[in-house]
Amino acid sequence: MQVLVTGGGGYIGSILVPRLLQEGYKVKVLDRFFFGKETLASVSKNPNLTLIQDDTRWFDKKILKNVDVVMDLAALSNDPSGDLDPKKTLDINYKGRARVAKLSKETGVKRYILASSCSIYGFRDGLLDEKSPINPLTTYAKANRLAEIAAKKLASGKFTVTLLRFATVFGYSPRMRFDLAVNGMVLGFFKNKQIPIMRDGTQWRPFIHVKDVAEAYVKVIQSPKDKINRELFNVGSDCQNYQILPLAKEVADSIHIPFKKNWYGDPDTRSYKISFKKIKDTIGYTTKYTVSDGAKEIYSNLQKGILTDSLKTKTVEWYKHLLESKKLSDSVVIQNKVL
After folding, report:
1. Angle formed at CA 119 by CA 5 and CA 220, multiple of 5 degrees
2. Which of 138, 130, 80 lies closest to 315 in space, CA to CA?
C-alpha cells in the first residue's frame, strides 16, 4: 500500500511518517518544508520514503499516481497562526485541502483522511459528540469546517472519506511545537520555574499525545471501509478532558516542580469538553499516552539538550518570519521538487 501524507514534515507528520514506514507502507510526503527537512532525518534513507517539496494548492496531480491512501494534514496550524493572514489560511487550509480531496478522487485514490480539529466546537457547555452543534470562532476553525464539508461531498462507494477531529495535541516531536498548551507549560517550568496559563484557567480542552494521533491514522486505514466511509470521528480520550488550571497542576506534579503560575492574555473564548465514544465503539481505537507521559518526555529532552527553545518551535513567530521574508508568499512556487 502506498500512502501520501500532505504536511508530512510537520509536528504530527514527523511522528506519523516513521510510524507508517514501520508498518511497511510506501510513503510519499508532500510538504513545503517550512520547518526544514531535518524533521524526517531519522527515516531519510528509508527506500520506501519519497519527499516531494510542493504546495497543495498547485502540485501536479501526477504525484497521486498509484497512491492508495491520502492523509491530508497540510495546513497553517492553530488559531493564532490562522489569524495572521485569514485569506491565506482559507486558501491553504480550506481550498488547498478541498483540491487535494478532489484530485485524489479523480486519480483513483481509494481512501482520503482529513485532519480536522475539535476547535470547531468553539464554546459549548456539556459533553459534545459528533452530532453536537458546532461553533467555529476562528479562521482556523472555520477553514477546517469548510474542508470537512468539501471532502465529505466527494465520498462514494469507491472513494472512502473519513474526517478526524483531533483533540489538542501534546508530546515530543522532531518538529517541536511549544505553542501548544502542555508543551508550553513544560517549557515555562523549565525556563522560568513557573507556568504560563491563559486566563482564567476554567476553560475546557481535550488532549491527545502526538503518538496517539499517529496510531489513530494507522487504525483508520486498517479498518473496513464500511465502518469509516463518510464518517466523522472525534479523536482523543474522555479521561483527557481538562480544565486548563488543573491541567497545569498535573504537569507540574509530573515533572516534580512546585506549582507557580503566570497568567497571560485575555480570557479564552474557546471551551469544549468532548466525547470520544464513537471512535472507540466503531473501530476500537483507544489512546495509550497520558499528559504525565508527555510532560516527562519533553522535560527530560529539555534537560538533555535534545530540545531547545528556538524561533521554529513557536509556530506563530516562525510564520511571521516567513511572511516578512516572503518565504510564505504565493509567488514562491516550487514545482515537483523530489528531494
Report:
1. 40
2. 80
Residue listed under C-alpha cell 526544514: 36
Domain CATH code at residue 139:
3.40.50.720
Q: How far is CA 41 from the centre of its chain?
A: 20
pLDDT(332) > 50: no
Peptide bond into 54 cis (omega under 30): no
pLDDT at residue 181 is higher than 80: yes
Instruction: Enumerate residues 6+ apart whose C-beta is below 8 A from 217.
Output: 16, 19, 20, 71, 113, 164
**Virtual CA dihedral for 51, 233, 118, 108, nearest 10 degrees?**
30
The number of folded domains in the chain is 1
Structural domain span for residue 319: 2-330
Any domain includes 201:
yes
Give the helix ranges, DSSP H, for the chain.
13-22, 79-82, 86-89, 97-106, 139-152, 181-192, 210-221, 225-228, 244-254, 277-283, 291-304, 315-324
- Asked whether residue 161 is assigned to any structural domain, the reply reads yes
Classify residue 153 by its DSSP letter: T
Higher-pLDDT residue of 78 and 29 is 29
Instruction: Give percent helix, percent strand, percent coil of the chain, each to the nearest 5.
Output: 40, 20, 40
| Mean pLDDT score, 329-339 | 45
More confident residue, 7 or 330: 7
The pLDDT score that the predictor gives to residue 52 is: 97
296 located within any domain: yes
Average pLDDT, the chain: 92
- Indicate the DSSP class of residue 268: P
